[in-house]
Amino acid sequence: MSIKDKYAFVGLGLTQQGKIPAMSPDDLATQAILLALADAGMRKDEVDGYIYQQGIGGGPNGVTPMLRAGIPVKHCWEMQSGGSNCLSIVMAAVGALEAGLCQVCVIVHATSASSQGVLVGRPGERSYGIEGVYGAYAPGVHGAWLAQRYMHLYGLTREQLGSVAVTFREYANKRPEAVMYGRTMTMDDYLNARMVIEPLCLFDFCLVNDGAVALVITSAERAKEYRKPPVYIMGYGSDHSIRELGRSPQAYLHWDGFVTQKAGEGAFRMAGVTLADVDVAQLYDAFTPFVLSQLESYGVCGRGEAGAFVEAGNLKLDGAFPCNTSGTELSWSYLQGFSHLTEGVRQLRNEAGECQVRDAEICMVTGLGPPRPGSLANCCILRR
Amino acid sequence: MTEYAKQLPVITSSDKPFWDAARRHELLAYRCLSCGTFYSQVTQCLACDSPRMDWVRVSGKGFVYTFAVYHQLYHPAWAKDIPYNVAWIKLDEGPLLLSNVIGCPNDEITVGLRVEVVFDDVTDEVTLPRFRPSAAKTD
Prior knowledge:
The complex is a heterodimer. Chain A is α/β, with parallel strands linked by helices. Chain A folds into two domains: 7-117 and 208-223, 3-Layer(aba) Sandwich (Peroxisomal Thiolase, Chain A, domain 1), CATH 3.40.47.10; 139-206 and 229-384, Peroxisomal Thiolase, Chain A, domain 1. Helices cover 33% and strands 19% of the residues of chain A. Chain A is built from 13 helices and eleven strands. A nine-stranded mixed sheet of chain A has the order 3-2-4-7-1-8-11-10-9. In chain A, strands 5-6 form a two-stranded antiparallel sheet. In chain A, α6 crosses α10. Chain A is globular. The relative contact order of chain B is 0.19. Chain B is mainly beta. The radius of gyration of chain B is 16 Å and the shape is globular. Chain B is built from one helix and eight strands. Chain B has one domain. The A-B interface holds A 119, 121-123, 128-138, 141, 144-146, 148-149, 151-152, 194-200, 243, 245-246, 248-250, 253 and B 6-10, 37, 39-42, 45-47, 65-72, 74-75, 78, 81, 83-84, 86, 88, 95-96, 98-100, 106, 110-112, 128.
């Protein structure tokens, strides 16, 4: 049974992004939920489902945002699995709708990581096991190991990694709500930035900031009743590197070890389209090497070609594969996978401002992250 | 000996043989006894489905598969080590081990560098395998 085109996003609510010390994650989430309902032109009593994700450093306290917003939902879940989680939440919402558990589901991500002064990777944040024994703290080290290996195999340069960061920064500079709006970055700025986990420097790492977003999902039939043009879920696929784990304790060490192949195949098969039909993409970008890896493992370019592909400008608006058009996690706002879903929906609503891909009809959105060990890859195809 | 302030491995029943051997300065890896494939942590061979798995002694020789150098401090006990490296070592028998390369400056570490195990007795109870550049250029 396919869920192709059966469900759609009808509302999107985005708070301010950046440093917002006056607001708790509950405050931010409540505001995002009310903005999403206003965006859809939806009454509160129509919402009966709620699924939320904890952000870095904590998030909503259970149903508190729904309580504050005055929305008596009957169905709710907390889900948490980092960078893959947003699209897993989308599928959980679709499953809840499909099963009749709810008719309208609000999904939420909220964080006040910046105001809390979170250093992602500090000991105690989570269990580090053998990694901590050898000093391998912080998720960014996985990007550093990937980049180091890739540099050796294919001659990847720092300028090529930097071209990911600079390209996405240029997008964010055109988006007034972006954390990095007004803060330009040249390749020299990138090359002169301090090293964090070599070969990755500060600008290879995603942002840490405060903010929240809420999206509303319902059936395609019902979606037509609301104010905004629906954005339909065409296809979805996922894949986990578990079958690679026998060969190494951390499968994402392999350059192609994200094992996104089945995620892409599943998503495009369900959607009935191919990569060539994708007008714009939002690839999970917690660290710059993840973008290169996904470009290759989803088949956008061949093995070892991603660095040159990005350096040639192919991820820009006039390039072959416009990508991460808000600046996403690296330069727009770190809402984990919700950064990418948000921009995907905005592109297909023609709401991406100066970064709008003209006549965008189909958008590919990806997620990447736990459950560990290894990594879960999620791929979702959206259409307007 | 000053108290060891860094994180120690949490030794479980599944990897106790590895840490016991390290205290004896022997390196073990987990292997399928039917087809010979090496693993980190599985109880059934993913290649041939055999349940016959056990720890076997390996040479301790291999090469740097990839590595990263920490300039940012995350755990205070590593402050004096900054910048320090964390490397994946591919043993000649096949498996990958997480460790540190010691005995050479970080800027002399390369992917492919030949290394050999050294045993670092960090406490009376725990010995950590680390790796240093091989004495011989080829071995």
